[in-house]
Design brief:
By secondary structure, the protein is of the alpha+beta class. Helix content is about 60%, strand content about 5%. A 4-stranded antiparallel sheet has the order 3-10-5-8.
Length: about 650
């Protein structure tokens, strides 16, 4: 078994040469216990200090500002900002390049946080126009003529063509300020769109001319131009209390949808956001429908029948709050089809109610479908986890498993769910490319790998492969991770929890291992001459629930196959560790090659020779086939030449003489 190393025991291990109990523990573990050298401890601690936050970067002592070389081997040098402008500058002269740098323009990167912040800003005026224009608008005289009958034309005055006109008339100055503030943001957004970069051959384009040309080819350019048409000039003729002239501002609504999409991808609670977004859409539709109901009621005449809004001459029905709340209530009942409303009387009222019912059916279907799907997605992980528990329960009942063991299994599952450790990392990350998988795995397991001494100076490529092969394992209280005499097929690194090295009785504890300890790495290397061989020489038991990372021997050997130099370096490190603890037979270690190794090499050579012979046979067959085809062609040409008569040759000569003349 490999070394058992714990951070909490660093001071004691630094005195290993003078501590008798520690020497006894080394004998118990039969060479797999090795004390960590002070230099390694200091190096590990210095690495950890470099990750303690911004304060560590601001230290005055330059000697303590060390970069983590272990992490840098994975990531490599930081990428520089490479754009199409930079690539184009390579084809220019030095003077032209300097001239272009002076003319550097501001570009909005759509992948940057600044772009999302700008979306949150532009979404505010878009939502303001979406909600308030319809609330303040007045029906046009044309719609008024369509709705009203000849008799009603004489009864309806021009002032009856307003929708919540008190709201518009009372706060006219406020609406002017808000409207033109929104317009200013609209104009700024158009400029931002014209400077929003896009990717070309994987690089962000920063050429202003290209960006403008690209923007003009998009459909949104047309909508942006329509939204900026100065229809407010009509206010000079018809007055400021006609907000319906600003309906073209709604052409910017795509920016609001884009903001919602970006937020959905950024939020940590996407299902909750989708539900909230759906409710918001429904409320907007209900709001618009309420405004349309009140506008139609105003056009027809308040209190003229049972369907329209009651007569506003009544003090209670004349209040602005009551007008809007009543209209919103009627719209909610109609669109959700969950209540009774007064039946329509006129044809226009029937048509409006029919359209509301059809819209309500769509809304109800969308609510049931979307909310049901969202709730299912929210509980998908729990349902999948519960299905696993149920299947295991059925199996244990079918196989007559003891109640004690069944209770332990259920408690183990409860621990996984309570501590949120049910996620299958491979399943979650399977859609990512290998490089991103490695980056994520490095960020997750970096602190763990840094504690394993034999991996300190390995190649970055090997470490990337190893970090992707680490398998998380969870052990329950009392579980044995390994027993004395077992064949070592994995090495273990403690991520969280406590393990105890116990005697054969399972009670007596020699030492307790905690976070950061590791063991079993020497046994999976199979170092020649090791006195321990590949057998476990100690009993290690989990004290409570413990989380470990396991690296199997097969995975390590598979990775080392492509890195022979790294394999040799690891074996040399392992030998040095065993020699330090006097746990290696130097005579065997320094002897010639192991016959088993020679036999394996011979088998590999024989396999390679067979492959080469097969390929050579294929090449010979191809050469023979090509020679046969060539002979056939030569034979055909000979037969054609033999079939030519002297008369044919004389005709050819005569034709040639004619062409010459």
């Amino acid at each position: 078994m490999a070394k058992i190393c714990s951070e909490n025991s660093l001071p004691a291990r630094s005195r290993l040469s003078t501590s008798t109990p520690d020497e006894e523990l080394a004998v118990i573990e039969n060479g797999d216990s090795r004390s960590r050298s002070p230099s390694l401890s200091e190096r590990t601690l210095s690495h950890r200090d470099s990750f303690t936050g911004p304060g560590a970067m601001a230290r005055a002592n330059p000697e303590t500002q060390r970069h983590d070389s272990f992490l840098e081997r994975f990531r490599g040098p930081d990428l520089k900002d490479i754009t199409s402008r930079g690539s184009n500058a390579q084809s220019l002269g030095p003077n032209d390049t300097i001239h272009n740098r002076k003319k550097e323009i501001w570009i909005m990167d759509p992948a940057a946080d600044l772009y999302y912040r700008w979306l949150s800003i532009i979404a505010v005026p878009v939502f303001y126009n979406l909600m308030m224009i319809v609330t303040r608008y007045r029906l046009s005289f044309t719609i008024h003529l369509i709705i009203c009958t000849e008799y009603e034309k004489n009864m309806c005055s021009p002032s009856s063509r307003s929708c919540f006109n008190e709201l518009q008339d009372t706060y006219t100055k406020l609406w002017i300020v808000l409207d033109y503030s929104a317009d200013a943001i609209y104009y700024m957004d158009t400029f931002v769109r014209s400077r929003t970069g896009y990717l070309e051959q994987g690089l962000l384009v920063k050429d202003s001319k290209k960006l403008r040309d690209k923007y003009k080819t998009t459909s949104q350019f047309k909508y942006d131009m329509v939204s900026m048409i100065p229809t407010d000039l009509l206010f000079l003729k018809f007055g400021f209390n006609n907000p319906e002239f600003r309906f073209n501002r709604l052409c910017k609504i795509s920016r609001l949808f884009e903001f919602f999409e970006r937020t959905e991808t950024r939020t940590s609670f996407p299902n909750m956001f989708r539900i909230s977004n759906l409710v918001l859409y429904i409320l907007v539709i209900i709001h618009w429908n309420a405004c349309m109901f009140f506008a139609i009621s105003k056009t027809i005449g308040f209190g003229t029948d049972t369907w329209v809004y009651p007569n506003i001459s009544h003090p209670e029905h004349g209040r602005l709050a009551r007008k809007y709340i009543y209209s919103l209530y009627w719209s909610t009942l109609t669109l959700t089809t969950i209540g009774e409303t007064p039946p329509p009387v006129r044809d226009v009222e029937f048509l409006f109610v029919i359209s509301d019912f059809l819209t309500g059916v769509l809304i109800f279907a969308s609510i049931v479908g979307n909310v049901g799907a969202m709730i299912s997605n929210m509980n998908a992980s729990r349902a999948e986890f519960q299905a696993k528990i149920d299947s295991i329960k059925q199996y244990m009942q079918f196989r007559k498993v003891t109640k004690d063991l069944e209770a332990r299994v259920i408690k183990w599952f409860d621990y996984l769910w309570t501590e949120k450790k049910t996620c299958d990392e491979k399943e979650v990350l399977k859609n990512l490319p290998d490089k991103l998988k490695a980056e994520i795995a490095i960020n997750v397991h970096l602190d763990t790998l840094k504690k394993v001494r034999i991996f300190q100076d390995c190649e970055a490529g090997l470490l990337i492969e190893l970090v992707l092969k680490l398998q998380p394992q969870v052990f329950s209280p009392g579980d044995y991770i390994c027993k004395k005499g077992d064949i070592g097929r994995e090495m273990y690194i403690i991520k969280e929890g406590k393990l105890a090295v116990v005697a054969d009785d399972g009670v007596t504890q020699f030492v307790v291992l905690s976070d950061g300890a590791y063991f079993g790495e020497i046994s999976i290397l199979g170092i020649k001459g090791s006195k321990a061989g590949n057998r476990r020489t100690a009993n290690i038991r989990s004290v409570g629930y413990s989380d470990l990372f396991a690296l199997s021997k097969d995975d390590l050997m598979e990775s080392l196959t492509e890195y022979p130099d790294a394999k040799k370096a690891l074996e040399e490190k392992g030998k040095a560790i065993l020699m330090k603890d006097n746990l290696i037979d130097e005579a065997i270690a320094n002897a010639g090659a192991d016959p088993k190794d020679l036999e394996e090499k011979i088998v590999k050579l024989q396999t390679n020779l067979d492959v080469m012979q097969t390929k050579f046979a294929k090449l010979m067959a191809e050469v023979t086939s090509s020679q046969t085809r060539m002979k056939q062609r030569v034979t055909e040409m000979e037969n054609k030449v033999k079939s030519v008569t002297p008369e044919d040759l004389s005709e050819v000569v005569a034709d040639k003489d004619k062409k010459v003349q």
